[in-house]
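input
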Amino acid sequence: MMEREQQTHLERPSAGGALARSLLFLLMGAGFVALYYVGLRNYLLFHSLVEIFSIVIAFTIFIIAWNSREHLADSYLYLLGIAYLFIGFLDLMHTLSYKGMQIFTDYDFYANQLWVATRLLESLTLLAAFSLAPRRITLRPYVLEAGYAVVTALILFSIFQWRIFPICFIEGVGQTPFKIWSEFFICAILGLATWLAYRHRQLFSPQVFGYLMISLVCTILSELSFTFYISNYGFSNMVGHYFKIVSFYMIYRAIVQTGIRSPYQLVFKELKAKEAELERQVAIDELTDLFTRRAALALLQKHLSATRRELSPLTICYLDLDGLKQINDTFGHAEGDSLLKAFAGQLIREMRASDYACRMGGDEFLLILSHCTEGEAARLVERIEARVAQVNSSWSKGYALAFSYGLAQWAEGETMAHLLALADTRMYAQKARKKEKTALRTSPVTAAASLAG
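output
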């Protein structure tokens, strides 16, 4: 109840929030217009403002991810946080080396080379991050830092020292084929990252997922814009930087603001995922993938309540594998586990969507059959027996798969304990009759397969 209230509180829109969002959009619109006029009068200032904005966002992402590393187990957050530290640094170098800054005057190609290298590093990082999102892989932050530091150093040396990085732009000529094809390659990587993010969208809250999608799409549009310009001060270059602003702002909304102003959206999502996984571990038997005894009793109680209200039929079937102990003793427990899994598979194949197959422990199973009479349940058991017979005819083992069962249909006024006891008694009665028949026609080969466990 408390968790539901917290989630509702987080997601409930308010009048104040709507007003704040409206003011924010107005400020953003005014900012874009102001930037446009700045770009018309002084493109170098426009470029510097846009890049400084993205650099601040990149460094802030690192600070948030680094300081929350003890609390968040998501490996993709580590990766993004550490990567954006180095992406921001390379963007800073790109800004300082831009034509007109008069800082690096010995070479004309630094800025475009740094842009391509940084965007390639960013796209590969996003691809890796969304690949890691559904996995629980422990990443060592210091190892990641060292790895990104080496990659960053190689990029800088290849551009500034060795000058082996391909030329990307020639003044008066335009972009080189390498630059254009690199942008298309980066777009392809970002497209794959977008597909992975969409595929794993259940890992994110709807709001955060929306921010990430907008950021990825704007990053792709930004890269595409940079395939058209002829001048570093051209219009398509300006459009590409606008898309970059939106892209980094959406990353800010998705990670930074969510982590600072709305920390529950990242932490709560992870806690809910862990809670669901724990519930699944408690409810599902690891060996057979059937419901556990604990889950079975809860499900039966729930369906009995519905049956009492609706006065609809409900039947349970208690099943017990014959001879499992002898099979374990003779062939080993691994063979016994294989037998349990094979039997569980046959049960699942005959279950309706409204039925539940459960492993009560050891070699005992329970079927909960809602809206089902005892006669209908008996026909279901016959189909299971037919499937078991097919299994026995298809394998050449030294034993046969067999089971005993007992049916019990709920009657008005009957308790769950009485219903379970009735099915259990009938199952053991059938098992006893099998023992009597076995005793009359005992042979060393058939006895090991037929004696009750």
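quick obs: Confidence is low (pLDDT under 50) at residues 1-14, 443-453.
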